Structures are given as structure tokens and as C-alpha cells.
Amino acid sequence: MAGIRWPPEDSEMLPPRPPTTADLFSDDDRSVAADSWSIKSEYGSTLDDEQRHVDAAEVLAGGNFAAAASDYSSDKDEPDASEVETSMLGFQSYWNASYAEDLVNFHEHGHAGEIWFGVEVMGTVATWTKNLCENMSQGRNVADDSNFKYESSEAFKDLSSCSVLDIGTGNGLLLQELAKQGFSDLTGTDYSEGAISLARNLAIRDGFPQISFLVDDVLETKLDRKFHVVMDKGTLDAIGLHPDGPVKRIMYWESVSNLVAPGGILVITSCNNTKDELLQEVENFNKRRRTAEELDQEAGSGPAVFAYLDHVRSYPTIMFGGVEGSRVCTVAFLRN
Ligand SMILES: C[S@@+](CC[C@H](N)C(=O)[O-])C[C@H]1O[C@@H](n2cnc3c(N)ncnc32)[C@H](O)[C@@H]1O
């Protein structure tokens, strides 16, 4: 897998580069942390959840992932599921401890905690998403690729009727930004109870009591509702940093495809993946879905798949090894 690329450390808004598990965990600690991943305080594990994990592991073991990975046209080393870099940020125990500290800081000093990727990126993601949704609701062609046959979305008429879910919401500040842009049906989820408590406290303090927050693990989601817009800022990155990152990423796409309403969009902001890598990951997911559909004669309206819509172009770029790229990318995918 491509190396982990974190944003620069010169911005005071950005968290420091995370240590890797190899640096910080003894073997014993690692197995405790890994156990804490599978023992969910809120819901407990269900047979369905375990089955999803088994299914994703089978996809990897069956070579689909390896085959799909070899399709990468990136100039980087070919991704190898056995060489995924891991970090403490892949563990729920890390986030629980981190948000427990943030909550103390909030109560003692009123601090909001980390703004991942910085204030500017957060503002860009919010305004860019608003513009995209407005254009979609007004029937404009929002597709970057002129060959893509975009059919105007009837999913929502305006921002106030557009439901938004932010997965791995952390302190929930992105949802506050979206509220300022005119969205009103806003929900944030995170598997860390501390994050949800912090996000609720901040939303009330800052005058956004209408934003809903609930504890939910996106890989084993208990949400039975679909949303017009699903936001992810740094959550897929964190999920991919778990030692079982490749399996969990497969579970992620399965789960998220059930959370986005038909005609709705998924907006991912990542610093660990380039736009092209995300596009490839989506293509791999689509292939798996279509294959499963062919096998399932009973299936009716076709599998839920994603198509690339557009990406943010305004992030500053850097040159590295003769290649130009951004430290952060934000990409929108349309669900069929
Ligand atoms: C890098 S932080 C980003 C937080 C927030 N989105 C932001 O931009 O400030 C990653 C977040 O994802 C959450 N997270 C990681 N894995 C998750 C999962 N499986 N389900 C729900 N939340 C998860 C973590 O608790 C953490 O809040």
C-alpha cells in the first residue's frame, strides 16, 4: 500500500504526525488494542457484523483485492495488502483516550480539540459541498468528466431538504460549518462516545442544537436511514491505519453504500490517499458489487455502486519526486 502521507506539521491546526503501532505498542498492547476493536462498548458484536468481517476477509483471501490492486496505474509501488502501514490512529482505544482528554480540555478551557487538515480545508469542504449540492438540486451537470451521463438528481430540492451524515464526525465542527452554509438536516456519528459527547457540547455551546449526534461504528452501522450526502473527513484514513485496514476498507465501502440514498453523494476528504487511489478503490468496490449481483439471481434494481463526480481543485499542490500533487484531496462520488 502506498506510504502514509500526513499533512505538514508546520500548521498549528494540524495534529502531529502519528506514531506507528510498531513504535508504540508492545505485542501485548497490540493484542489488547486489537481486541478492543472487536469489543464494541455500545452495541456488542452481532453475528451479522462478524459475517461482514468474514466476507471482507474472504474477498481479500480470494485474491480479488490483489487482482484489483494490480490494476493501479499510479506511479507508486504496487499496493500490497500485507505491507499496510499501521498506526495507533487505527484503534478505537486511541480515539477513546484522545477524546477523553479533549473533553477535559473542553470543560476546563472551552477548547474544541483538533480540526483535522486545518480550518481552511474544513471551510473549503463545506462551501464546495454546498455548491455541489445546489448545482445538483438545480439540475446542472456537476460531473467533471464530460463523457459521464449525469442525470440531474431528484434526490433533494434544496439545501434544507438535503440530509447530511458525517461519519467519524469527531468534534462535529464540519457539521457546524455545513449548518452555516444552509444545511439543516445534519447528523454526526462516531464510534467513540467521547467524540459524540464533545460534539454535542460544542454544538450546543456554539448555537447549533439542531445537529443530531449518535454513537455508531460505520463498519457495523445500526443506522437504518439513508442520507442525500455522506461526508467523511479523515475517517477512511483512520480505518485504513488499523492492522486489518484492507479488510476494514472493504467493509467500509459495503456499509457506506447502504448509507447514501440513490442519487445522493459521498464526499471523502483524505490525506492518506490520492484522488486516483480513491477512484481505483471505488472501481474495485463496483466490480465486487457487480460480480455479487451476477451471482445473485434474485437481485432486483441493480447493485449500489458509485461514480466519480468531481473533486476540489483549490488545495495547494507540492512537487515530490517530479510529480505534482496535493497533501489533501476531497472527492465526491455519486451513488446510482
Ligand atoms: C482523523 S479523525 C477525523 C475527525 C473528524 N471527521 C474531523 O475531520 O475532524 C477520524 C475519526 O474517525 C472516527 N472513527 C474511526 N473509525 C471509525 C469507525 N469505524 N466508525 C466510526 N467512527 C470512526 C474516530 O473516532 C475519529 O473521530
UniProtKB/TrEMBL annotation:
Organism the protein comes from: Elaeis guineensis var. tenera (Oil palm)
Region (Disordered): 1-29
HAMAP family, sorted: Methyltr_EFM4
Major enzyme class: transferase
Name of encoding gene: LOC105047060
Coiled coil: 268-295
EC number: 2.1.1.-
Every Methyltransferase domain range: 160-287
Listed name of the protein: Protein-lysine N-methyltransferase LOC105047060
Record localization: Cytoplasm
GO MF, one annotated term: protein-lysine N-methyltransferase activity
Keywords in alphabetical order: Coiled coil, Cytoplasm, Methyltransferase, S-adenosyl-L-methionine, Transferase
Highest rank taxon of the organism: Eukaryota
Role description: S-adenosyl-L-methionine-dependent protein-lysine N-methyltransferase that methylates elongation factor 1-alpha.
GO biological process per UniProt: methylation
Cited InterPro entries: Efm4/METTL10, Methyltranfer_dom, SAM-dependent_MTases_sf
Cellular compartments per GO CC: cytoplasm
Similarity field: Belongs to the class I-like SAM-binding methyltransferase superfamily. EFM4 family.
Cited Pfam families: Methyltransf_31 (PF13847)
